[in-house]
Amino acid sequence: MSSPRAALPVLAVTLGDVAGIGPEITARTLLSHPELRERCVPVVVGDADSLRRGARSAGLDPETVRVITDPRAAANDPSTIEVLQTGPSLGDVAVGELSAVAGDGSYRFVVEACRLAREGRVDGIVTAPLNKAAMHAGGHIWPGHTELLAHEFGVKNFSLVLSAGDLYVFHLTAHVSLAQAVQNCTPGRTDDVLSLAGAFVRALGKPEERIGVAGLNPHAGENRIFGHEDADVLAPAIARAQERGINAHGPVPADALIPAAVRGKWNIIVACYHDQGHAPFKAVYGDDGVNITIGLPVVRVSVDHGTAFDIAGQGIAREASLVLACERAAALAPGWEDVWKAASAGVASPA
């Protein structure tokens, strides 16, 4: 019989951009919240020297950072931070400044975490924030974490999902311009995201959960007065989803759907573009929200904030979102195979 310790999911916690608040909030999360060790085995994928500096900034003992080589051999001692050194030391990177070296490091940390997941050496991935401009300067041209992770796992159908409590906000599009987002709201993409949402609620054991789709245009187009996409793209996709047994509804004007979701009338909603979902979500939930990628073979949860160069190294960054990300990943990891099977069984519809 396996011990309770052996049953805990091992989480690869990527350090993010070491010039930002990632090292500081990671140190605080793993040293100031011992209760996490009862739910998971967090192992940092990153840079030991940057972590030590982050611990020092947070007023914690930098000597608690311990380099290990195998995540499955982690001791999970709440008085230590166990880290897999990934590449050369980044301890000389200036804090609070855009750095190609730090951007390259943040990319390497994610790629290494994905490799560990593919090899079955970790059960989930939790990501501290990276800086897209720094990553690009480092030679890695990805819109963000989500797209890089999808590439590393070889998946085409995935969605950025913001979550707080029982609320999950799927996105038809994410890190593209608004003009490109409108173009990307195709019948096929809408079908795929509704399939992901349907798979997710089935895996949660709630196949009848209502899924609300936000309109792309004001008033969901109002009978094509403000655009044709709602009537010609979203509404037919919702009808097709209903035919597949998915309890989808809409399109509903976003200014009606999202406030109703905040009040608890919807638990699963679909936003059409980045700011339609992100802006109200962050305004309401702040540090109480996380970012989950649905469509990957392993659970990935992230903080829902950026690198905060303006306060990095000052010891004032809040770790609440990273703590929540670890908690959510630990809760989802044991049943994630059901989410993956359900999501990967979906069939893409017309482009």
TrEMBL record:
<dbReference type="Pfam" id="PF04166">
    <property type="entry name" value="PdxA"/>
</dbReference>
<dbReference type="InterPro" id="IPR005255">
    <property type="entry name" value="PdxA_fam"/>
</dbReference>
<dbReference type="GO" id="GO:0050570">
    <property type="term" value="F:4-hydroxythreonine-4-phosphate dehydrogenase activity"/>
</dbReference>
<keyword id="KW-0560">Oxidoreductase</keyword>
<comment type="similarity">
    <text>Belongs to the PdxA family. PdxA2 subfamily.</text>
</comment>
<protein>
    <submittedName>
        <fullName>4-hydroxythreonine-4-phosphate dehydrogenase</fullName>
        <ecNumber>1.1.1.262</ecNumber>
    </submittedName>
</protein>
<keyword id="KW-0520">NAD</keyword>
<keyword id="KW-0479">Metal-binding</keyword>
